[in-house]
Amino acid sequence: MQYTYITDEHALNQFCLQASRAKVIAVDTEFVRTRTLYPKLGLIQIYDGQQLVLVDPLPINDFSSLTQLLTDPDVVKVLHSCSEDLETFWHAFNVMPSPIFDSQFAASVVGMGTSLGYAKLVETMLQVTVDKGESRTDWIARPLSEDQCNYAANDVLYLYQLYPTLRDKVVEQNKLPWVYAEIEHLAMKKRTNLPLDYVYLTIKNALKLSAKSTLILQKLAAWRTEVARQKDMSLNFVVREENLVEIARVQPQTKHALRAIPRYEPT
User: Fold this and answer.
1) 226 is catalytic
2) 230 and 178 together in one domain
3) In the chain, is it the N or the C terminus that has fewer CB atoms within a 10 Å radius of its CB?
4) CATH code of 230's domain
């Protein structure tokens, strides 16, 4: 596996200048999101067809060349199932990559299957088996191992290779505008926080409660989300969803009654 590990701004600037001349680049991120509401960026992988780089964001301060590349309208960015990648870029750099060709969505619109994982898509189109053994690794800890770096590099190596054939399939069905429009819509949603009064609607079984319990859940969910956003804390590490629903259902009137409600611990 041939890749360049970038840890300084000069090397990043040089690569981004080179990649800006490409028509297409494959992009991926690795991040950690265990106890936090927002993803913590651990690594950025980019392949422009000539050079594959792993960008370590921890020692770098100036990402202006990278954000310019990510938003260059003349360079297509190929990502797979990009929802969390978009969120990661938004919270790390306050930018949304564009234009984006999402290989998972593209595969779905041409009838290859819905929600295809990266490994399955690569196996189907390239007859290559991708090792996903490092998918749950700690991408913030340093140094990264050779296995981690190889895993990360593979995520853009094969993504770049499957793009031409997958794009041709999409073009043949006149659905290329669909792919770009869908991700533009997703990016718009990622830029905007759901209003606090509506976050209860994302909670499972919220609409099965009585009217009074639903109103209580609405207030509890808004409070939990506000705390999570202020402290960058995972929602379930504020209060688990199951606890909120149970409190809204039981409506305890005393501290003793509140303590009597079964507790669901964060996982």
Assistant:
1) no
2) no
3) C
4) 1.10.150.80
